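Project channel, design review

CF: Before we commit to the Chlorobaculum thiosulfatiphilum constructs, I'd like one complete example in the thread so the newer folks can see what an input/output pair looks like. Taking DUF190 domain-containing protein.
RD: sounds good, go ahead.
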Amino acid sequence: MNFIESELLRIFIGEQEKLHHRPLYELLVSEALERGMAGATVFRGLLSFGLRHKVHTSKIFELAGELPMVIEIVEITEKIEEFLPVVETLLRESGAQALVTRESVRQWTT
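CF: and here is what came back for DUF190 domain-containing protein:
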């Protein structure tokens, strides 16, 4: 097996965050695709809380639309570095509250 040293970029946003009437998570994935990133995946959280300690849940009696979305992108460090200004611009323009993390990973290739 061949492993490549890479990075995992994680972007946590709310599912209601939008820019130009489009969900922000869709825009982030579209921008990643346009820039030739290896791949991106979006996850919808079932239960969370953040800095304000407000609990967001998917229980049937709770209001929908406040759940977290997590966008994950695995790519070599250089491409992650090139993509970060795009992420920053989209987050700033949308006014979204977000958490962005990076960690080292090893990506398996065939």
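RD: helpful, thanks. The longest strand covers residues 2-14.
CF: The radius of gyration is 15 Å.
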